[in-house]
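Interim report to the steering committee. The following record documents the input for 4Fe-4S ferredoxin-type domain-containing protein (112 residues).
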Amino acid sequence: MEADVRESTAPQAPSGRAQRIAERTRAEGWKKPPRRIETSECITCDTCLRSCPAEFGAIFDIGLDVVIIPELCSGCPSCVLECPVDCIYVDEDWTPTEESVWNHIELTTEGA
C-alpha cells in the first residue's frame, strides 16, 4: 500500500495546455492554423477571452490589447463565433510568441 501512495504523489510531467506553456510550442497534431486578433479593429470587450475553451486558454489581455497566443490556439472557431466586431482572423503566417508575453502568461497561470 505504501508503494501506491508514493506513486500517486510523484511529480508528473505537465500535459495539455500546461505542457504547451512549459515548452512554448504548438501541438503537432493540430491541423488548423491559429487565429489572430486585429488590434486596430478590436474593441477589447473580452468576449473572445471568455469564449476560448479552458483546455486551450489561448487569449490574454496584454496591456491595452487582447491577443491570441498561437502556440496555445488550436484554430477552433469559438472566439470567432462570439466576436461582436469580427476582428479575429486565421493566422497562416504566425510567428512565435515573444518572451515578454510568455513571462506574462506564466505569471497569470501560476497556481491555476
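The beta strands are 35-37, 59-62, 65-68, 88-90. The committee is asked to note this result when reviewing the revised timeline.
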